[in-house]
Write a structure and sequence with these properties.
The complex is a heterodimer of chains A (303) and B (361).
Chain A: H1 2-36, E1 39-40, E2 51-52, H2 56-63, H3 65-96, H4 103-110, H5 112-115, H6 118-128, H7 135-142, H8 155-180, H9 184-192, H10 197-225, H11 229-234, H12 246-255, H13 260-302
Chain B: E1 4-13, E2 16-26, E3 31-35, H1 42-50, E4 57-62, E5 65-66, E6 77-80, H2 92-102, H3 107-121, H4 136-149, E7 154-158, H5 166-182, E8 186-191, H6 194-200, E9 203-208, E10 211-216, H7 218-223, H8 228-233, E11 240-249, E12 252-256, E13 261-263, H9 266-272, E14 278-283, E15 288-290, E16 299-309, E17 313-320, E18 323-330, E19 340-345, E20 351-354
Parallel strand pairs in B: 3-8, 3-9, 6-7, 7-8
Antiparallel strand pairs in B: 1-2, 1-4, 4-5, 9-10, 11-12, 11-14, 12-13, 14-20, 15-19, 16-17, 16-19, 17-18
Helix pairs in contact in B: 2-3, 2-4, 3-4
The chains are: A mainly alpha (303), B alpha+beta (361).
The complex binds adenosine-5'-diphosphate and magnesium ion.
Magnesium ion binds at residues 42-43, 159 of chain B.
Chain lengths: 303, 361
Amino acid sequence: MATKGINRLTPYMFMAPAAIIMGIALLYPLGYMVYGSFRDWNPSQTIGESEFVGLKNYITLFYDPAFRESLSVTLTFAFAVVFAELLLGVGLALLLDRNIRGMSILRTLFILPMMIAPVVVGLMWRYMYHPTVGTFNRFLESIGLEGVDWLGQHALMSVIIADVWQWTPFIFILSLAALQSLPRSALEAARIDGATPWQQIIHIKLPLMMPVLIVTALLRLIDAFKVLEVILVMTEGGPGLSTEIVALRISRTATEFRELGTAAAMSNYLLILLLLLTLSMFAVTKLQEARAARLARQIQEED
Amino acid sequence: MPEIRLEKLIKRYGAVEVLHGIDLHMAENEFTVLVGPSGCGKSTTLRMIAGLEEVSDGEIYIDGQPVSHLEPKDRNLAMVFQDYALYPHMDVARNISFALRLQKRPKDEIETKVKEVADIVGLTDFLTRKPGALSGGQRQRVAMARALAKDSQTFLFDEPLSNLDAKLRGQMRAELAIMRQRVQKNMIYVTHDQIEAMTLADRIVVMHGGYIQQQGTPEELFKSPANKFVAGFLGSPPMNFLDAELLEEGGELFAKGSAFQVRIPEVKAKQLGRTDGKITLGIRPSDLNYDANAASQVALDLQVKVSEYVGAQSVLLCTCGDADVTVELKSETPIALGETLRFAVRPEGIHLFDRKSENAL
Ligand SMILES: Nc1ncnc2c1ncn2[C@@H]1O[C@H](COP(=O)(O)OP(=O)(O)O)[C@@H](O)[C@H]1O
Ligand SMILES: [Mg+2]
């Protein structure tokens, strides 16, 4: 009896260290943050000395135009990059899903940007966007065009371009993997049924890739909401508030404005947003599983 | 409907040539079966006709027109794949109507057509199901219905029944034979199963190692195989082969082996054009009849090793000298393992092959 009980507990014992560390490293600060978000808290105080203010931080934020602006910058940024990356990544995958000589090298080259550290990417693009000595403007001027004020007037677009450059490969490799696992013979059947290459994409390839694409897009969206380094290095959120994403605003609120409580509340808003996205991704996969299970059951009932 | 001709068709993958000049002529409305062991190039041949594989050399003519440069969709054919190749995200009705929808046919015409072919293959109750919710046999029918709906002139089948269990395969084979009579089309059917080939074909093309070994009606191929390979491939249980030498004795010709001396019928001996040399004697199990009183020059003496009971018939695995011989026997015949029995050889059942070239003599 006793050994049986121990046996049943064994897996939990092995999991315990990891669970404890996760509890300390993740749940404790999280709880700390939630707790702090209900307080008027200044970095010179300990959290015990701070004053409880209820939902005040959340309500102020809700009506704070600067926070709203930064939320809208984040949303614009996230949806714009994911949309552009999907378009480019899937498009490239459709183009490069063939056996031509040198294709494997080309594919490897395509995924390089993803492997570069974000800070380096930021520095690299900041240099390339430089108004006078930057690669882009020098090129534009050399062909007789006027330079563009990349990180000034068009700052948001410029950081979007940099992010698209870095993360399109992610969508590209996942789409390519999805494409290459499509049933070959179904595509051949479509060719015989009279589908042009374009119709094969619309009617067969894209619908069959859709489950992978949805999950990929959600993953990227979650990531795009958390982006920080690249923008920090390139623009520091400026000019004005034009590229101040929520993550940047949080760090400024905490360090410059010295309002830890507000910063914590802001983090919680972001957390809720990410949680919703994660849940929807979870729901999507569950839904797919449920559908597969239902089909399997249907077959079994007939046999 | 059309007449299809393959001329010196060659297929290479890189430096490896897998088809070495296939010449084939398929008449209108003919049911042609390409049969041969796995890897002999049947699918490759079929896929070249379909336009799914490039032709390395030679040409394919449909009604006299060269087509090897045409896309599959411009060749007016339908194909049933071994793994069915259904579109997983479309329900049965949309699978069946895919080609018609691409052609932008009117809605009611499509609907009528879907109902019609679904009725032919018995899928009427499953039109709203996705392929994932169908059994193997039903998927098979969807593949068939999809091909039928297209109304194309030529039907290609690549081992359509090989993923089904034995019982279902037999049933589908019978249904195919019936459908084949209703539908006046050119059909080219690939299989490695000689029973399918024998039961369905107007004409069988036996392939081996990238070459056509022989073509003709099932009966022609069964009765007079052109070489040892065809003889051994068609028929079940397969033909027995015994090493022998030709021997003339008293004006008669014999095939003499280590443990037998069988007389070669006069008609056959006349055609032979030679009276000595190493040969292989081929006799089908069905041409060996248990007969204890037969004369030794028209019979084989076989020692029974194993008896396989398969119902009314038993299959006996025997030895004749050092060669293995299979025979069939009514199950009620009392025999003991290790016993030596005499089997009479039907004179028409004697096949002779050159030992070296393996061609029929
Ligand atoms: N894509 C390919 N690349 C290289 N060799 C191939 C390819 N497809 C088929 N082959 C070779 O061609 C030969 C014939 O194949 P196939 O036509 O599929 O045979 P089967 O008669 O079993 O249908 C085989 O030896 C196979 O290995
Ligand atoms: Mg094959």
